[in-house]
Amino acid sequence: MRFKASTIFVTGGAGFIGSAVIRHLLRNTHARVVNIDKFTYAANSDSLPGTTDNLNYAFEKQCICDGAGLRHLFAKYQPDAVMNLAAESHVDRSIDGPGEFIQTNIVGTFTLLQEALRYWRTLSNEKREQFRFLHISTDEVFGSLGDDGFFTETTAYAPNSPYSASKASSDHLVRAWRETYDLPTLVTNCSNNYGPYHFPEKLIPHMIIKGLAGEPLPVYGDGKNIRDWLYVEDHAKALTLVLEHGTVGETYNVGGRNERTNLHVVESICDLLDEVAPRSGAHRDLITFVADRPGHDHRYAIDASKLERELGWQAEENFESGIGKTVRWYVDKQPWWRAILERGYATKRVGLSQ
Ligand code: NAD
Ligand code: TDX
């Protein structure tokens, strides 16, 4: 009985990965889930269908930078675990406006750690032993790879964007709270996620939506940058496994062994759109090379063998199966993303540092 009688805080649970984690927990475990989310532009209650009537689910609109608010929630719900996914997550936005990234990703993680520690110290010895604080981070903290090699759990940190620097900083805080105060923390570093409910600013949904509109598909630079794609539901399963069976104080890399150039990703989307939503010309004709992202990391690639070996995790989707499902999801679920556009989200270029 996975997580029977356990209460799990999921911060950022109205976002892309957080909502996948909540859907997974509610569907496959007995956990009671409390979604703690400030509800920024990236949040979406439509990503959590069926939760309003679910007795195992509660939502609290709450910023993780507000210690008093968090203290109240720890006292109210007495959680057994915290999964911290609340973050500003978009690299291009961090170039134009790094302040929010410093606040949420660094100050917010610090505040959450302080309140988790304060609460943890009030628990019985048995409950303290069982408590877990899982911090969800990114492979971008490791910087950029050349054409060879992989990021492992021991790769040195070398973040290049305001986003990745803020995430690196939060990872260090989590580690320090374990080493100094014994708070039972774990960290995961994951590669690029994709799949249903992905906010349209990110590469894959951005290209699908623009392709469906017959608009130019803006590929940064020469399109040869490489990302290592992981289907979001595989990530949600990995995070649940780490929470359940991971060793306190350890970090785990999560990745799908699916490196692709950005151009390959966009061409694959075009070819799928030709099949499921044909237009008069080929969708590949819409591909347009545009100015590069400042500080654009060349390549990310995750070695996930520790997670596979120690916890028995395996990605179920490869890039071809996952991108097919994703394109079909965006074609079928147009009301989900059209509502975001109607709320005022403009699919325009940001992050040129001008
Ligand atoms: P997202 O932007 O889709 O969602 C973030 C959520 O956090 C939103 O619901 C937002 O309202 C909430 N939030 C933001 N600031 C908050 C605050 N101050 N207090 C409370 N809630 C706040 O992000 P995502 O893609 O789901 O990413 C989740 C986590 O996973 C992040 O920590 C991100 O760094 C990490 N990550 C993401 C990816 C990826 O490919 N998307 C890859 C690796 C790691
Ligand atoms: O229009 C675009 N054209 C383009 O060429 C966009 C939006 C992106 N790109 C490129 C930039 C990157 O090389 O595609 C690649 C992927 O871009 P994003 O979707 O913005 O993702 P990335 O910058 O790689 O970061 C993502 O993965 C790691 C998430 O946003 C982070 O939160 C996560 O930590």
Keyphrases for this structure?
354 residues; Rossmann fold; alpha/beta; 7-stranded parallel beta sheet; binds nicotinamide-adenine-dinucleotide; globular; binds thymidine-5'-diphospho-beta-D-xylose
Gist?
The chain has helices spanning 16-28, 67-77, 91-96, 99-120, 125-130, 162-181, 203-213, 232-245, 262-276, 305-311, 319-332, 334-342; strands spanning 7-11, 32-37, 57-61, 81-84, 132-138, 185-190, 193-194, 217-220, 226-228, 230-231, 251-254, 259-261, 287-290. It has 354 residues and is α/β, with parallel strands linked by helices.
Structure description:
The protein has 354 residues and is of the alpha/beta class. It has a domain at 7-194 and 229-260 and 298-319: Rossmann fold (3-Layer(aba) Sandwich). It has twelve helices and 13 strands. It has helices at 16-28, 67-77, 91-96, 99-120, 125-130, 162-181, 203-213, 232-245, 262-276, 305-311, 319-332, 334-342, and strands at 7-11, 32-37, 57-61, 81-84, 132-138, 185-190, 193-194, 217-220, 226-228, 230-231, 251-254, 259-261, 287-290. The strands form four sheets. A seven-stranded parallel beta sheet has the order 3-2-1-4-5-6-11, with helices on both faces. Helix 1 (16-28) links the parallel strand 1 and strand 2 (32-37). Helix 1 packs across helix 8 (232-245), helix 4 (99-120) packs parallel to helix 6 (162-181) and helix 9 (262-276) crosses helix 11. The longest helix has 22 residues, at 99-120. The radius of gyration is 20 Å and the shape is globular. The termini are far apart. The model has no long low-confidence stretch (mean pLDDT 98). Nicotinamide-adenine-dinucleotide binds at residues 11-12, 14-18, 37-40, 42-43, 63-65, 85-89, 104, 108, 136, 138, 167, 190, 192-193, 199. Residues 89-92, 138, 140, 192, 202-203, 206, 218-220, 225, 227, 262, 293 line the site of thymidine-5'-diphospho-beta-D-xylose (TDX).
